[in-house]
Amino acid sequence: MDNRILLRMCKMSGNEIRYINEAFRDEWVVPLGPNVSGFEKDLEAFLGEDKKVVALSSGTAALHLGLIDLGVGEGDEVMVQSMTFSASVNPIRYLGAVPVLVDSEPLTWNMDASLLDSAIADRLEKTGRLPKAIVTVCLYGMPNDYDAILKVAGKWNIPVLEDAAEAFGSSFRSQRCGTFGEYGVLSFNGNKMITTSGGGALVCPDESAARKTMYYATQARLGYAYYQHEEVGYNYRMSNICAGIGRGQMTVAEEYIAHHRHRHAYYREHLAPLKGITLHDNPDSRFDSNFWLSTILIDPELRVKGEDDAYSAAVTQAIGGAGGVTEAGASVHTDCEPNTNVEAIRIGMAKEGIETRPLWKPMHRQPVFSKFPSYVNGVSESLFHRGLCLPSGPYVSDADADRVIKTLKSLIR
Ligand SMILES: *Cc1c(COP(=O)(O)O)cnc(C)c1O
User: According to CATH, where is 3.90.1150.10 located in the chain?
Assistant: First the structure.
């Protein structure tokens, strides 16, 4: 590798290949086998709380099946955190259901429980029906305030689907994220806390829910000698090869989580003297984020070198190393974008080979979802204008963090 510092890259422990070799030796290269069940057992032990875990092809697939398990269908409404990655919302649309987007509160950046409460009351008044589910998201690893969220969910008796894709290893009141809802979602995509190259899991409340999830994940086949189907199914199970990578990653999961917390503490110590830069942190002792990404807010008043040219050129490739194909944007600007000082810092860092990224743009400001109902208090949009994600992965060393901090300082006027 060159001397670039990337936002996040997963790291192999060396143990993955052992499990993959076993899979090849025993010809278990299909979506079942000892690595799949072994990985699920590892995850159940890791999460605690007596949950059943079903390994799937992605976190998005897990969200999709979780919604199906909760009975979400055409025309149903689902409350969902607006400040998130699009994958929290897309599966609601796969089902023809209606996402109702709820804004954040400033401490966790996650769903505002009192806004959720009044939004549910308003949906009931407007539609005569209660929403079918509440999708919470532990953004950048920060747990939701589950004291407040679960109180509202309990009051209305609406099940929670917890999107903990970014929060593997985070906890709230010493309970691990992914276990707070009726169902929970984990992701093992190439940029998450641990990876299976691509994959995810649905955390289920019990054995029968897990069996039902497996049934939907394997084309909804009924028990006959021939193929018999009464429902639409999906091909969402994790392969035994990918699960082998997952088992290898589980041998170092605690180490990686500790590394991310160290990375965050190091940034905290060294960014503290910088005026106008605020590191996002655990609001109080109930929260223990995995700090999957360390993120900062930049004061709009902070003057930064290169601000005047910040939006002078279109971004020509996808920002970030995760790959995939992006369509070219139609213009340099959209009607909701990071402040010029944030973009100037991003460009200034990129010139020094340091990858940063704006915060996730709220879903109620995304053209694809803007026509759906939203309950907004301005928090997520204000965060998006001011925020930036810093390099945080297992490859980011103290020396790398020093370079990030030094470059950031040099950009402030
Ligand atoms: C990554 C991510 C997902 C989707 O997980 P995949 O495994 O990539 O499908 C869902 N929600 C959030 C918040 C994510 O960050």
Answer: 254-411
Q: Are 308 and 176 in contact (CB under 8 A)?
A: no
- Round to whole Å and give the CA distance between 30 and 28: 6
Structure tokens belonging to residue 2: 């060159």
Are 188 and 163 within 8 A, CB to CB?
A: no
Pairwise CA distance, residues 194 & 187, whole Å: 8
> Which ligand 1 atom lies nearest to the CA of residue 189?
7
CATH top class, domain 16-252 = alpha beta
Per-residue pLDDT of the chain (413 residues), as tens digits, is: 578 999 988 899 999 999 998 888 888 777 778 999 999 999 999 999 999 999 999 999 999 999 999 999 999 999 999 999 999 999 999 999 999 999 999 999 999 999 999 999 999 999 999 999 999 999 999 999 999 999 999 999 999 999 999 999 999 999 999 999 999 999 999 999 999 999 999 999 999 999 999 999 999 999 999 999 999 999 999 999 999 999 999 999 999 999 999 999 999 999 999 999 999 999 999 999 999 999 999 999 999 999 888 888 777 655 554 566 777 787 888 989 999 999 999 999 999 999 999 999 999 999 999 999 999 999 999 999 999 999 999 999 999 999 999 999 999 98
Mutation test residue for ligand 1: of 64, 136, 163, 197, the one with most atoms within 8 Å of CB: 163
For atom 13 of ligand 1, the residue with the nearest CA is: 85
Q: What is the DSSP letter of 238?
A: P
Distance CA 45, CA 43 (A): 5
Bridge partners, 136 (sequence order): 162
Residue 5 backbone phi and psi in degrees, to 5: -110, 115
List the structure tokens of 408: 């950031």
Q: Which fold has domain 254-411?
A: Aspartate Aminotransferase, domain 1 (3.90.1150)
Q: DSSP 3-state assignment of 237?
A: strand
Ligand 1 binding pocket mutation candidate from 82, 139, 189 (most atoms within 8 A of CB): 189
List C-alpha distances in Å: 194 to 14, 152, 198, 262. 13, 32, 10, 17
**Total number of residues shown for the chain:** 413
Q: Considering only CA atoms, which of 4, 8, 9, 11 is closest in space to residue 255? A: 11
Q: Which residues line ligand 1 at a C-beta cut-off of 6 Å?
A: 58-60, 84-85, 87-88, 137, 163, 165-166, 187, 189, 200
Between CA 294 and CA 296 the distance in angstroms is 7
